[in-house]
């Protein structure tokens, strides 16, 4: 079975565990996603509930248009700032050093924070700057590094990259990316990109760990879930941890928010992991970042 170098032993893994990134920063092993959660009450209530039931890691983005509500929920949670890990992302229309610098400040302002724990390039080759991705990513990354040196960003990451995007970036980066947030679940293992992350000591962060819901109806997953007396969502999230990825689960439903973090009292057998590894495309595949109209 494939295991990343970040993988934690199931015997010690619990909801308060963290992965140690390549710059020493500690990142909670499960995150709460907020894509497609409406700004205002929906985001506020979901994030507040997530923090209440034990998530300590919230993933948002400028593009999700809900940073203000995330920030309000963080403040009202009553938790110390240092106990919560917050990630946000640079939106595609920002293509210069200055624009990225301003975007970081604007995200901090909307979130009401003095720093974020992680800041990502959301997309490596968007229609906003295709086909000049090398120049754009180099410029915005420099702004991210300056914010990192200024203490406004505790770790830097990338998202949806492929080899050519990453290696172009590494040619000029002063700070190595610490994480790579990408579409990964049993339906698309993205083995080549995961191997690249391993090579550069970059943690693989699994977005859409439930295939945005599509995975949960597959008979193989339903059968394994029944065997462990768990739900298909819990099996899919645990699968991420078994490989040493960091799953980002999204739900706006309180019972599911709780269910999705209740994945630390069981471990999957090698045989069941293999069945899941072999699902190959049954619930969809990652899109191509060079051609998707985003
Ligand atoms: N970097 C990127 O480009 C990128 C792209 C996509 C996602 N992400 C991040 O990754 C996060 C997760 O990905 P995702 O939003 O695509 O989806 P996901 O977590 O794979 O799936 C969410 C969907 O599954 C449903 N669901 C959640 N828990 C469930 C459960 N226990 N039982 C049944 N259904 C359940 C949710 O419904 P309800 O909400 O209605 O309960 C929602 O429809 C995002 O929110 C975002 O933070 C990043």
Give the neighbour order of strands across the main sheet.
Answer: 3-4-5-6-7-8-9-10
Helix residue percentage? 25-40%
CATH level-3 fold name = TIM Barrel
Strand content: 5-15%
The end-to-end distance, rounded to whole angstroms, is 34 Å
The low-confidence parts are none
Bound molecules: NADP nicotinamide-adenine-dinucleotide phosphate
The first-level CATH class name: Alpha Beta
Count helical runs: 10
The CATH architecture classification is Alpha-Beta Barrel
CATH homology group? NADP-dependent oxidoreductase domain
Structural class: alpha/beta
Strand count, sense and barrel status of the largest sheet are:
8 strands, parallel, barrel
Provide the number of structural domains.
Answer: 1
What is the helix/strand order? EEEHEHEHEHEHEHEHHEHH
Cα Rg: 18 Å
Your description of this structure?
- The protein has helices spanning 41-53, 67-76, 97-111, 133-149, 163-170, 191-199, 219-228, 232-243, 254-259, 270-277; strands spanning 18-20, 26-28, 31-33, 57-59, 85-90, 118-121, 156-159, 179-183, 203-207, 246-249.
- The strands form two sheets. The chain has an eight-stranded parallel β-barrel, surrounded by five helices. Strands 1-2 form a two-stranded antiparallel sheet.
- It is built from ten helices and ten strands.
- The chain has a single domain (18-277), classed as NADP-dependent oxidoreductase domain (TIM Barrel, Alpha-Beta Barrel), CATH 3.20.20.
- The chain is globular, with a radius of gyration of 18 Å.
- Helices cover 37% and strands 14% of the residues.
- With 294 residues, the protein is of the alpha/beta class.
- Bound molecules: NADP nicotinamide-adenine-dinucleotide phosphate.
- NADP nicotinamide-adenine-dinucleotide phosphate (NAP) binds at residues 33-36, 59, 122, 159-160, 181, 207-213, 216, 231, 233, 248-253, 256, 259-260.
């Amino acid at each position: 079975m494939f295991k990343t170098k970040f993988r934690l032993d199931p015997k010690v893994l619990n909801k308060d565990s963290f992965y140690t990134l390549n710059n020493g920063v500690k990142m909670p092993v499960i995150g709460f996603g907020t894509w497609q959660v409406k700004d205002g009450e929906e985001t506020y209530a979901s994030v507040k509930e997530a923090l209440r039931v034990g998530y300590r890691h919230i993933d948002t983005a400028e593009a999700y248009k809900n940073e203000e509500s995330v920030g309000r929920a963080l403040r009202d949670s009553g938790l110390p700032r240092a106990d919560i890990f917050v990630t946000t992302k640079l939106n595609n229309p920002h293509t210069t050093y200055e624009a990225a610098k301003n975007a970081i400040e604007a995200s901090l302002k909307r979130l009401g924070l003095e720093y974020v724990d992680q800041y990502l390039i959301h997309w490596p080759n968007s229609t906003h700057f295709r086909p000049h991705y090398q120049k754009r990513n180099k410029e915005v990354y420099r702004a991210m590094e300056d914010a990192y040196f200024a203490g406004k960003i505790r770790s830097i990451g990338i998202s949806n990259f492929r080899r050519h995007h990453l290696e172009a970036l590494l040619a000029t980066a002063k700070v190595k990316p610490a994480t790579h947030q990408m579409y990964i679940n049993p339906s698309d293992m993205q083995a080549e990109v995961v191997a690249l992350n391993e090579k550069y000591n970059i943690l693989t962060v699994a977005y859409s760990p439930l295939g945005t819901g599509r995975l949960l109806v597959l008979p193989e997953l339903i059968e394994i879930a029944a065997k462990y007396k768990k739900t298909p969502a819990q099996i899919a999230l645990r699968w991420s941890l078994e490989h040493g990825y960091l799953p980002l689960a999204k739900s706006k439903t309180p019972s599911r928010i709780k269910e999705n973090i209740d994945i630390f009292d069981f471990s999957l057998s090698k045989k069941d992991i293999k069945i899941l590894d072999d699902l190959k495309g049954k619930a969809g595949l990652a899109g191509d970042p060079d051609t998707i109209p985003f």
